[in-house]
Design a protein that fits this description.
By secondary structure, the protein is α+β, with helices and mostly antiparallel strands. It contains three helices and two strands, in the order ααββα. α2 runs antiparallel to α3. The protein is elongated, with a radius of gyration of 27 Å.
């Protein structure tokens, strides 16, 4: 009556995952990376949290003589999320390289 063998019914055992253990130097590099990424994100928030980087800002000015308002472009750098992500990606790649180089070999 058993048409299906027990071998087919056995579930695959999950493979043991080796966890990477960081030594002290690697932990210092990782914490330094975390500090730089947090500083980059807070700087981006400080610039206004814009998605795209801008080099000019539209400001409204008032003409004193006639009392009318008009809009004018003012040269001002506003950091965007695009440059922030690029900076974080660059710092992450460098950090991964440092962590890889500072590993202890058995």
């Amino acid at each position: 009556m058993d048409c299906i063998s027990r071998k087919r019914l056995q579930l695959l055992q999950p493979h043991k995952v080796r966890k990477m253990k960081l030594n002290q130097k690697q932990k210092k590099v990782f914490y330094f990376w975390l500090l730089i990424v947090a500083a980059a994100i807070f700087t981006w928030i400080g610039f206004g949290g814009e998605v795209f980087t801008k080099t000019q800002k539209l400001v409204e000015k008032k003409d004193e003589l006639f009392g009318t308002t008009y809009k004018e472009w003012k040269d001002q750098f506003v950091l965007g999320l695009d440059y922030t992500f690029a900076f974080i990606a660059l710092v992450s790649a460098i950090t991964i390289g440092f962590i890889w180089r500072k590993r202890t070999r058995p």
